[in-house]
């Protein structure tokens, strides 16, 4: 059985390094323009250079998004951007727009071209079309079932790769082609500026009764009628492989390093366990579920993979996430005495019990023994975000390990 690629999102250099070390075979990132996550931190040219170098040193590929649906005014800038990417040498470009594809194909013929899910790829003829134009891979529309994907696999050339989202937020619109944000907030989702109005609360107003709002269903708090559950396929690795999927893609270029570490590490272990033995995979299922649940998420669904979803795919009473763990920081340096240096992400104090997340799957319980500022001053707690701290713990932490703590009840 073929080994699938585990493709992890990264919205910053810190998150890219976390993804690489916590199990990614490949990461996908965006530059400062032409990607569909304009609100992510994204990568400057120099950060992209450093990130690609770091990934390649660890045998990990880098895919760069350029998947906006371009307008005339975008094309001149896109041409210059592709010349920059040619110099930086990522492993693939993710593109949705045929005009952008033609530009990239002409300027960067040595870089693999992948067709974004944004291009509405729902049938084997479409895959064949892109293959004939020189694309290496097509990302399936999220509206496809495993049965449909398996049929596509059987009817396209063997060297055409199939990539599918297997975990993360689901868009309520057809392949992400949504006008809600553009209409309600003046920010175009197809240009990377989505404000996610599908997560907002909605009610009905009758034309002759302005100002009188009626809940869409019988709930005094209103209803979140467009709010989809999150996709999670951790329990269905065999089915994904059986469908012939080459790349397992995680959604989340807006997510933190903690989220990326938890999800990458869990899917890495699940894939490797299954390829070693199905019994081993089944025996570790409870661990996978527990670890996935420790990352920020909504309720979970299998999306369209086993048929068209029904009303159970939506969350009607809330737009909130399940968030039981707090991210404290990533270990940037370890002193000769074993103290660790971090940039603090959330407040914690001397005496707190925390957890050290290691890339190999270990979670070590530890107590915070002391905290010192960058200037050497001892403090009891660190109230300021992004403060540089030296931390002494009761257990050993290594460079790039992540620290988290369970929220207090």
Average pLDDT figure: 88
Globally, the shape reads globular
Q: Superfamily at the CATH H level of the largest domain?
A: Aldolase class I
Spatially, the strands of the biggest sheet line up as: 1-2-3-4-5-6-7-11
- SSE order, as H and E? EHEHEHEHEHEHEHEEEHEHHHEEEEEEEE
Question: Would you kindly provide a written description of the structure presented here, covering whatever features stand out?
Answer:
With 409 residues, this protein is an alpha/beta fold. It folds into 3 domains: 5-172 and 228-305, Aldolase class I (TIM Barrel); 179-225, no CATH class; 325-406, Translation factors (Elongation Factor Tu (Ef-tu), domain 3, Beta Barrel), CATH 2.40.30.10. Helices cover 28% and strands 22% of the residues. It contains 11 helices and 19 strands. The relative contact order is 0.11. Residues 218-222 have low confidence and may be disordered.
Write the layout of secondary structure elements.
Layout: E1 5-9, H1 13-21, E2 26-30, H2 45-57, E3 61-65, H3 72-88, E4 92-95, H4 98-107, E5 112-115, H5 124-133, E6 137-139, H6 146-155, E7 161-168, H7 180-185, E8 203-205, E9 213-215, E10 230-232, H8 237-242, E11 247-250, H9 257-276, H10 278-283, H11 285-293, E12 300-301, E13 325-334, E14 340-343, E15 353-357, E16 363-373, E17 378-379, E18 388-393, E19 402-406
Parallel strand pairs: 1-2, 1-11, 2-3, 3-4, 4-5, 5-6, 6-7, 7-11, 10-12
Antiparallel strand pairs: 7-10, 8-9, 13-14, 13-19, 14-18, 15-16, 15-19, 16-17, 16-18
Helix pairs in contact: 1-2, 1-9, 3-4, 9-11
């Amino acid at each position: 059985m073929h080994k699938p690629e585990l493709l992890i999102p990264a919205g910053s250099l810190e998150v890219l390094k976390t993804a690489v070390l916590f199990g990614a075979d490949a990461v996908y990132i965006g530059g400062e323009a032409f990607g569909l996550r304009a609100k992510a931190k994204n990568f400057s040219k120099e950060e992209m250079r450093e990130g690609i170098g770091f990934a390649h040193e660890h045998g990990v590929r880098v895919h760069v998004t350029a998947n906006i649906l371009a307008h005339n005014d975008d094309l001149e800038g896109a041409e210059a951007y592709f010349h920059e990417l040619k110099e930086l040498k990522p492993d693939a470009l993710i593109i949705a727009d045929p005009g952008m594809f033609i530009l990239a194909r002409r300027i960067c013929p040595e870089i693999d071209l992948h067709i974004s899910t944004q291009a509405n790829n729902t049938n084997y003829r479409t895959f064949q079309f892109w293959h004939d134009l020189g694309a290496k891979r097509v990302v399936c529309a999220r509206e496809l079932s495993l049965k449909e994907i398996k049929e596509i696999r059987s009817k396209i050339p063997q060297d055409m790769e199939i990539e599918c989202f297997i975990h993360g937020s689901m868009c309520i619109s057809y392949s992400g082609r949504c006008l809600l944000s553009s209409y309600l907030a003046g920010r175009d989702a197809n240009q990377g500026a989505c404000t996610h109005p599908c997560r907002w609360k909605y009610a009905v107003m009758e034309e002759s009764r302005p100002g009188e709002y009626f809940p869409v269903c019988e709930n005094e708090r209103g209803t979140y009628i467009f709010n989809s559950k999150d996709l999670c396929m951790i329990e269905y690795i065999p089915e994904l492989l059986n469908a012939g999927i080459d790349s397992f893609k995680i959604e989340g270029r807006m997510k933190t390093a903690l989220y990326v570490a938890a999800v990458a590490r869990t899917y890495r272990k699940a894939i490797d366990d299954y390829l070693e033995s199905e019994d081993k995979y089944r025996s570790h299922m409870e661990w996978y579920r527990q670890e996935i649940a420790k990352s920020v998420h909504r309720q979970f669904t299998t999306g369209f993979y086993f048929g068209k979803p029904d009303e159970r795919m939506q969350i009607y009473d809330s737009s909130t996430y399940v968030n039981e763990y707090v991210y404290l920081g990533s270990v940037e340096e370890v002193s000769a005495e074993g103290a660790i240096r971090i940039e603090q992400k959330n407040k914690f104090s001397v005496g707190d019990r925390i957890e050290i997340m290691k890339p190999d799957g270990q979670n070590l319980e530890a107590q915070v023994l002391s905290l010192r500022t960058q200037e050497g001053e001892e403090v009891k707690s660190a109230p300021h975000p992004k403060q540089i701290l030296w931390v002494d713990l009761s257990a050993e932490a290594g460079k790039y390990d992540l620290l988290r703590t369970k929220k207090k009840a």
